[in-house]
Design goal:
Number of helices: 4
Distance between the termini: 33 Å
Shape: elongated
Order of helices and strands: EHHEEEEEEHH
Strand content: 15-25%
Structural class: alpha+beta
Length: 122
């Protein structure tokens, strides 16, 4: 099945999601990648998000010049993941099929604006 998106032509929208949840296995993978203990990786790369509805470990973000903020592992100049081989499961599964809604929207807007580098903003 051919995918309906090309991540290399996207400014990294999925990496701007404010809550990128990580599992214990994701933390272990990142710890190995950076040669850290699991505890050190959890402390350095995540924060605990707990509400009545959720109890999650979330990847830390940093400010971005395209979106408000991005995953700390996102290279903001190259617009790509710097830990691709060690990325969390939720990132590996995204966009959960062979189509990415944002990429379809981006392609439409770029064609409509006649600008292949156009990035729609709010």
């Amino acid at each position: 099945m051919k995918s309906g998106f090309d991540c290399s032509k996207c400014p990294g929208y999925c990496c701007s999601h404010p809550r990128i949840e990580v599992t214990d296995k994701d933390i272990e993978r990142l710890a190995r990648h950076f040669e850290l203990s699991k505890a050190a990786a959890r402390k350095k790369f995540t924060y605990h998000y707990k509400t009545k509805e959720a109890d999650e470990w979330i990847l830390r973000h940093r400010k971005d010049h395209v979106y408000k903020s991005m995953c700390q592992f996102f290279d903001q100049d190259e617009r790509r993941c710097t830990v691709y081989e060690a990325r969390p499961a939720v990132c590996r599964k995204y966009p959960y099929g062979n189509k990415c809604g944002y990429y379809s929207f981006l392609k439409f807007e770029r064609a409509h604006q006649d600008d292949e580098d156009f990035i729609p903003s709010a």
